[in-house]
Amino acid sequence: MKDSARKRLKDIFEERSDVTDLKKASLAIGRNAAYLHQYLYKGVPKKLDEEVRKNLAKHLGIQAHELLPSDSPHRELDYTPKPEEFVHIPVFDVEASAGHGALTDRESVLHFLSFRREWLRMISSAPFDKLSVIRVDGDSMEPTLSNGDTVLVDGTQNASRTDGIYVLQFDNYLYVKRLLMNPAKGKVAIISDNPAYAPMEDIDPDDLRIAGRVLWLGRRV
């Protein structure tokens, strides 16, 4: 039978090979230098006790439950999320924002979604108060975005510098559209991924008010 706990630990050490190794980690948890090598490659001890597991997880920068075998009945119960691990991002009412554009009107906040702080930092360096969530309305961005999808928006990326999917105000409407830049002309094209909708081309960037760039989508299946 495959030992998933040992395989997982080997993978973690490979991922962190630039900052630690088996010897350093063994000493960091108060054991002899060969302790983790013997555990991984000689099967001694058969399993890590709770204190060792917690100290090792702290050294590796992970949660202790991640060092349990995948089939352990305690794998999920071992970890209780801490409130400070999460950031609450406002979900805005798209229709309330349409016509007066920016996602800053706190009266149009419907509720909040919680995201792992660590995960948000992986996809954006923006201050958390510059992130927001809206729901997609319509099918103009199919198949990339569908009606009812939830998208996370980075409000610091509010200038038309690079191609991407943005939340933007144009002609008093709030859109979620793809922007394609034309540096040679100094113009922007507003593109719907659904070919049934014609593109709006040669737009002056000054005529756009960009609320932010779409970073992530959530979808019901």
The unreliable regions are: 96-102
| Helix content estimate | 10-25%
**What top-tier CATH class of the largest domain fits best?**
Mainly Beta
User: Could you tell me the mean pLDDT?
Assistant: 84
Query: Which of globular, elongated, flat, extended, rod-shaped describes the shape?
Result: elongated
Number of helical stretches of at least 4 residues: 6
What name does the CATH topology of the largest domain carry? Answer: Umud Fragment, subunit A
Number of domains: 2
Mind summarizing the main beta sheet?
A: 7 strands, antiparallel
CATH architecture of the largest domain: Ribbon
How much beta, percentage-wise?
Answer: 25-35%
Give the assembly state of these chains: single chain
Instruction: Specify the CATH homologous superfamily of the largest domain.
Output: Umud Fragment, subunit A
Rg, Å, rounded: 24 Å
Order of helices and strands: HHHHEHEHEEEEEEE
Instruction: Determine the structural class based on helices, strands and strand pairing.
Output: alpha+beta
**Looking across the biggest beta sheet, what order are the strands in?**
3-4-9-5-6-7-8
